[in-house]
Design goal:
Blueprint (H helix, E strand, L loop, with lengths): L10 H28 L5 H17 L7 E2 L5 H11 L1 H20 L11 H18 L1 H5 L10 H10 L6 H20 L4 H20 L6 H5 L16 H33 L5 H14 L9 E2 L1 H9 L6 H21 L4 H15 L2 H10 L2 H15 L2 H31 L1
Antiparallel strand pairs: 1-2
Helix pairs in contact: 1-2, 1-9, 1-13, 1-14, 1-15, 2-12, 2-14, 3-4, 4-11, 4-12, 5-15, 5-16, 5-17, 5-18, 8-9, 8-15, 11-12, 11-13, 16-17, 17-18
Length: 420
């Protein structure tokens, strides 16, 4: 933690930091639960991740406003790893990604973020948004028992093949949640986090009153959420597992680095401050090495929570620390009540998150250009959706690299013609 941020720090700043931390903590709880469920793992792991990542990045990160935790960008990647290799191997891949992030930091890879093509970022982020949105359709419709697949088109096929099993009570519950979110945002556009919480509480409460036991809850599918924090346990790492999981770990590390540094850059623009990319990557590396020891999934800086932190008047890492402590207190005191939350109530929350991270305006703008960047965006988007994020980013980068070399070759030829 950079102690310079506490120069001229006052009781007023402390109050603002604590208030902001509580507000962000309120947002983080439903998102932590939702992202874990969407990734195919136990909901409580999302809370463990929020607590550990939120605390450590506030202390060790390179951006004093950064809020870290599970994010939507990881959902398709983590779900793919869980389906292919299992949860324990996901923890190992997360640990390995932490080591890679520290290597990236020492090699000053963070300085290259400004050169990463925006068409690729928009393409894979829009693809991720579509996967998250479509992944919540089964919960919205009450199709909780259907098979989950690694690929988008197979999941859509599974949904259509099971439409005759839809639960009208789940649809009603999800619709109530969505309506509550939209009504709150209509009257108070800045209350995004509060709209999520109210949506879940109102829809679950009304559904429990009018048609109890007619819909699935977190508890009925995943069991009661434990009211304790886990003891540290080191994953069982073998050479075979390292070799098998290295590509997945590399993708996670790239995603963590990209998302965290882009979020830090947004924070800089909003606050006229300057983050340390090297320190941020080292902090995120340590975070992702420690969270698996507490059953946590990969984490990164998250833009919605970081922006909320800034808009609520945060001025130091105390806000991030408060947010982690608040979630811990809720876990230790109120965890059993989370088991009663309707799964259908979480679906609209993640759908709204997907809509907000879709970069729809930038997507439409680049497509309208009808340029090489449009091709890169569509290619990255399509491959992210129909294959996986690794292939989407890799092919997008190859296209950009080939385009750059062709462009340089033409420029060299023109120069030779002029000199000859």
């Amino acid at each position: 933690m950079n102690l310079e941020v506490f120069r001229n720090y006052s009781l007023h700043h402390l109050k603002k930091d604590i208030l902001s931390g509580i507000v962000v903590g309120i947002i983080a709880i439903p998102l932590g639960l939702g992202f874990a469920i969407a990734s195919g793992i136990s909901p409580v792991t999302g809370l463990y991740t929020t607590i550990v990542a939120g605390l450590l990045i506030a202390i060790l990160g390179g951006c004093r406003f950064q809020i870290a935790g599970p994010t939507g960008a990881f959902v398709p990647v983590l779900l793919g790893i869980v389906l292919q290799y299992g949860y324990e191997n996901l923890l190992i891949a997360g640990f390995m990604s932490g080591i890679l992030l520290i290597i990236f930091a020492l090699c000053k890879v963070g300085a290259l973020i400004k050169y990463f093509p925006s068409s690729i970022i928009v393409g894979f982020q829009s693809g991720i948004a579509l996967i998250i949105f479509s992944g919540q359709i089964p919960n919205f419709l009450g199709l909780h028992a259907i098979e989950k697949y690694q690929y988008f088109h197979l999941n859509i096929k599974e949904i259509f093949g099971n439409l005759h099993f839809i639960n009208i009570y789940s649809i009603a519950t999800a619709a109530l949640c969505l309506a509550t979110i939209l009504i709150v945002l209509y009257f108070s556009p800045k209350s995004l986090g509060m709209s999520y919480l109210l949506g879940i509480v109102v829809s679950t409460g009304l559904a429990s009153f009018f048609f109890a036991n007619q819909f699935e809850t977190i508890g009925s599918i995943y069991g009661e959420i434990p009211r304790h924090f886990p003891a540290p346990a080191f994953p069982d790492i073998t050479v075979e597992r390292v070799v098998t999981l290295l590509p997945s770990a590399f993708v996670i590390a790239i995603l963590v680095g990209l998302q965290s540094l882009l979020t830090a850059r947004v924070a800089d623009e909003m606050t006229k401050s300057k983050h340390s990319s090297k320190k941020e990557l080292i902090g995120q590396g340590i975070v992702n090495m420690v969270t698996p020891m507490f059953s946590g999934i990969p984490a990164a800086g998250e833009i919605a929570r970081t922006v909320t932190n800034i808009k609520n008047g945060a001025s130091s890492p105390i806000a991030g620390i408060t947010h982690a402590i608040f979630v811990l207190i809720v876990l230790l005191v109120l965890a059993p009540y989370a088991s009663y939350v309707a799964l259908a109530s979480l679906a609209p929350v993640l759908m709204v998150v997907a809509w907000n991270i879709s970069k729809k305006e930038q997507f439409a703008k680049v497509i309208k250009e009808k340029s090489f960047h449009s091709l890169v965006l569509l290619t990255t988007f399509s491959l992210t959706v129909f294959t996986n994020l690794t292939i989407g980013i890799a092919v997008g980068l190859c296209l950009c690299g080939a385009h750059f070399m062709i462009k340089k070759s033409k420029e060299k030829q023109k120069l030779l013609r002029k000199t000859s």
